[in-house]
Amino acid sequence: MLTSTLHEPSSVYATRTVSASAPREFPGLRQIVREVETAWGLRETTEVVRALNARMPALIERYRPQLPGWANGVDTHAASYRRIELHHCPLHGFQILAMVWGPGQGTPVHDHRDQWGIESVWQGELDVVDFAVKGSAGDLVRLEPSNVSRLSTGRSLGFTPEQGLHLCRNPSHRNATISLHIYARALDAFNQYVDIGDGWYERREYVPSQQHSQ
Ligand SMILES: [Fe+2]
Q1: Of 154, 120, 116, which Cα lies nearest the Cα of 40?
Q2: What positions does the entry give for Fe cation binding (predicted)?
Q3: 165 C-alpha to center of ligand 1: Å?
Q4: pLDDT (tens digit, 9 = 90+) per residue, 14-41?
Q5: CA-to-CA distance for 22 and 25, rounded, in angstroms?
Q6: So what's the pLDDT on residue 74?
Q7: What is the model's pTM?
Q8: Binding site annotation covers 7?
C-alpha cells in the first residue's frame, strides 16, 4: 500500500492554496491563534510543540461541532487535496492552514524546511508516514519509512524541526478528511522527494500554487 502511494503520478500531488486574502473562519480559529501565541512564549521548540499538541484534542472536541457549517463551503471532491490558509501571524510568523483531503489523496514525501509543526484531524483520518535518511549524494537521498501514525478524528501529531520528513494521506476510499496544520513559519516553499526507485529519492523544491479566490 505504501509502495503504490509513492509511485502515483506527480500530478496527484498538485495542490491548490487559497490565500488569506479570501478569509475563512475556521471553528475556534481565534482561540487556536491565542493558544499558539501562548505556547510561543515557552520559547524552547520542544516545549512549544509538546504544549500545543497536548491542547489540540480538547480544542477539537470543543469546536468540532461547528465544523459541518464550515465544511459545507469546501469542495471535498476536488482533483487534489487543498490547502487553505487561515492565519499568518504578522508578529511571530506562524501559519495556520486547513487541509481538505478527498478519498485516497495525499502528498509525496516532503520536508518542512527545519521548522516545527502540529497536524490535527478534525474529520476523517490521516496517515502520517515518517521517513529516515539513510544516505545521500547531491540532490539524491536514500529514504526508508520509519513510522506510520494513523490519526483518527480528534487526534494530533507534533513534530520538531528534526522530525518533519514525512508524507500524509487520507487512507479512506470513501470519506474526506479535514485537518488543521500549524507551522512555525509560512510553508510557502519546501522540498518534495520524488521516488526514483530502489529507496532513492530526488529532492526538488516545491512552491504550492497560490490562488486568491475561492
Ligand atoms: Fe507535512
Answers
A1: 116
A2: 110, 112, 166
A3: 7
A4: 565 554 444 468 999 999 999 999 999 9
A5: 10
A6: 84
A7: 0.86
A8: no
